[in-house]
Each structure stands twice: as structure tokens, then as C-alpha cells.
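Final paragraph of the annual report: two paired records, presented back to back.
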Amino acid sequence: MTLDLSPSEIGKFTSAYRALDFVESDMKLGLGTGSTAAWLVKLLAYEINNKGLNISACATSSETTKLAESLGIKISNLDELGQLDLAIDGADEFDQNLNLIKGGGAALLQEKIVETAANKLVVITDASKQVDDLGTFDLPVEVVKFGWKTTKRLIENVLIDQDVDCRIVTRRNNHTPVITDENHYILDLKLNRIGNPNALSDALLNIAGVVETGLFLGMTHSIIMGNENGLARVKSTGSLDWVDTSYDIQSLSQFIKNINDI
């Protein structure tokens, strides 16, 4: 059987498959948003339906809630679950210090709330998301609707003093606003390179109209990076080395078919 998936999608699946090793029965989990996290949700549904896995879960977006519930995973409110054992999510970029840019799917606020409520954050991704310096991917910033043009101008002013290679602030989808689950707007910062992510984060969050940024700094416990050959590489905070696990690509192919049939 051949995998009818792009190399990137195989890498995403491989990383999500490896993330199952971090999940234990009776855990309280935070489920992320995006294409890689969607693979994880499907895998968890398979484990619940076929292997008796028992979890309590909350989601970082209405999109993830809809997918999970369609597969039979009960989604609870974060306040009902309280402190989480583990959150698993994708990323748009990660650097050598395991800092992230997230929020390309416009769910950054809920993602950050859920993931700061977890004892551990495991990030699942593929090799295309690894960068030397954050900033290649546009940095999403969530802002309140009231006075958003003023907030945009204040962001542009703040960027003048930041160590970045480009300073362009655009509204997502040109003139069409993206409305978040919390009824806010998203602005995208085209920066190319962020020399000091912590300084930038602090400066942006000091602007009254900014609700949250897509900089997830010092939050990651482990990164899992999968590739199209069935190799999953894991790097954890405090470690300089990657730990590799190789999966048979034909076995992965059958498993993908199984979870797509649920």
C-alpha cells in the first residue's frame, strides 16, 4: 500500500503518531488546532475506540472541537478540567531554543490559554517548520475590534525599535477580516527575522489593544519532528540532542487507512 499523501503530510502524521507515546490513560489533555493537530485527534479517536484509551479533553478552537466530537471524543470546558496533564499542538515555526510562532489558524489566544494550563506542552510538526530565527512565518497578533486601526498604527511604531528585518503590518486576507473564536481581529506582522523574541513580545503586549501574540516562548517541553520516511525526532528542553524513532512506512500506511475509516 502506498501513502496517498504529500511528504509534508506524512511528516505531520509521523510526528502525531509519535506523540501518542506521551499520552497515558486518564490524562487531562489539551488538543491543539491545525492540520498536524487534526492527525492527533484522529489517532486519539482510534485509540479510544479500539484500545480503550480513556482521556478527558478540552480544545483550543471550535474547529478542533467539531472534529473531535464528530469522532466521538467528548470535549469539556477548560474550567471544568482545571490543570491539564498535557497539551499537544502544532506550530508554524520553531527555533533551536524550542520557541514557537503559532496562530496561523487564528486560534492563538485559546491555544495559549490552554497550553499555559498544561504541565507539559508537546509540539508536533515536520521539518519544514524548523528555522534558525523566528520570523519567516508571519507573526499573528490578536487585537480587539475597537480602535483596531489605532492599534495597528501603535504596532507599527513599536516595530521601529525592534530587531527585525522587515516591518510590515497587514490585515489577514487583505481587506477581509478574520474573526477569532473570541470575536477579535488578526493582524499579521511580516518581519522575516526576529532578533529578540522576548523583547518583541513584551513590547507588543504593552499595547492596550493587543490581546495576544503568536510568540510562544519558553513554553515547550518537547518538539516532535516527523518526516516522510517515517522518522520521528524528539528534542526536549535542556537537551542538545534529538532522539530518533523510525517507523515502518508500510505500517504507517495501514494505520492511516485505519484512522481515516473511523
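The closing record of the year follows.
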Amino acid sequence: MRLYLVQHAEAVPAEEDPDRPLSDKGRTDVQRVASFLARSVRVGRIVHSPKTRARDTAILLAQALGPGDVTEEEASGLAPNDATDALAGAIAGWSEDTMVVGHLPFMDRLASRLVAGSEEANVAAFQPGTVVCLERADGGGWALAWMVRPELLGG
């Protein structure tokens, strides 16, 4: 199984819009990443936090990587400072390739917990729009397979 951890793309400042939708740059960045990944990545489900910037990122990714415009909003457990326990426990029971779109520092702590067993390990350098691919080994542990950031794709 593959697990794709995504930091939402760049959002507008709260002073401009308190809902913080994606900025034009954020929308362009996530579309570029989605187009690149669509060559080889398909996911059965995309889960995201209820914040607008995460939902917008998830929808753009879903359109390119499957399952269309269908995403699943998590009402709790994916906020920037939430504990990783609940989601890490849920992930242990998942069997289909899944993408999770959320926020820092949560995504960094979750990746570190799954790969290194410590939330403080800092196993991936997330930036807005980053996708980190983890693979679950036969023994149940996770390994970092690859990551892509918008800056790598030019533009």
C-alpha cells in the first residue's frame, strides 16, 4: 500500500480572506504537481482536513489522480496541531492507496511517526504543495519512497 501525505498548496493570507482559499500560485502549483503525478499515480481515496485550503488542494488532486471530484472530509484529527494518534491508528487498517491532505506541523509529525517512530524525526521537508509517498512494507512498517515539491517542476 502507498500513502501519499500532502501539505496543502499556498493559500491567500488571512487578512485577504479569512477562509484562506488557495492563491493563484497555490492553484497553479498543485495543478502542476497533479499533472506530473497523473502519469503514474492513482489513488482510491483522498482524505482532507475541513479547512478550505486543504479541500481545494484535495479536489484538484482528485481530478487528476482519481477518484474524480470525490474527496472525504475529516471533521477532526487533521488540524495543524492535532495529535497524530487517531489518524495513525486508522491508517494501520487501510489497504488501498490513499492520499491525505493537511497542514504543518501535523503532516511532518505524521510522516516522522510512521517512518521513524518519532514525531520529532523530521523525515521530510514539507513546503506548500509537497507530496510525500510512503510505502508500507510486508512487516507493517513504513518507508519513504519519494517526494515531490512544486519547485522541482519549474514554473
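The longest helix spans residues 24-37. This concludes the annual technical report; the extension proposal builds directly on these records.
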